[in-house]
Design brief:
about 160 residues, alpha/beta, Nucleotidyltransferase, domain 5, two-stranded antiparallel ribbon, 8 strands, about 25% strand, elongated
Length: about 160
């Protein structure tokens, strides 16, 4: 009796559909990835206060911006309150804050550190706006507006508790 043998042919891979998928998927993923960039601001925690309070000198500014629900308090950790800026219409007066920060920067040009201390009731949007006002501002130089760094090294902490 003759033995029948099946002829085995090599199977061919059909990858046309896969290549079509890749051709469509790769440009789509590349175009979407452009919109996923995140803006990152380097922040650090404020340093602990020393027990000894040194006298304020020209190079010893420790700028603190305390954000309260009703005002912004700009001060020096050692020297105390510089100015209290009340809110205008329920929102922080960022123009007055920028002008004050610019004046402080002119007096202390070598300082780049500041601490922003929000109260628990302060909205996140307000915190970001105040950080932007402390970090950089716009100045007129000649006939054009220039972005100037004021205090780019920002530390974030909790606002000091008010004494009742």
């Amino acid at each position: 009796m003759p033995v029948r043998r099946l002829k085995k042919e090599q199977a061919h891979l059909e990858i046309t559909a896969f290549i079509n998928l890749i051709v469509v998927l790769v440009p789509f993923l590349l175009s979407v990835s452009v919109f996923t960039h995140l803006a990152v601001i380097d922040l650090s925690l404020p340093a602990q206060q020393n027990e000894k309070l040194e006298k304020l000198t020209d190079n010893n500014l420790q700028l603190e911006v305390v954000i309260r629900p009703e005002s912004i308090e700009v001060g020096d950790r050692i020297g105390g309150l510089i100015e209290r800026i009340p809110n205008v219409g329920g929102v922080p007066d960022l123009k007055k804050l920028s002008a004050l920060i610019q004046g402080i920067k002119l007096k202390f040009p070598d300082k780049a550190e500041a601490s922003v201390l929000p109260d628990n009731d302060v909205p996140y949007d307000t915190l970001v706006q105040v950080m932007d006002a402390v970090r950089a501002g716009h100045q007129v130089q000649g006939a054009r507006m220039v972005v100037t760094d004021y205090f780019p090294n920002i530390s974030i902490g909790d606002a000091p508790v008010r004494k009742q």
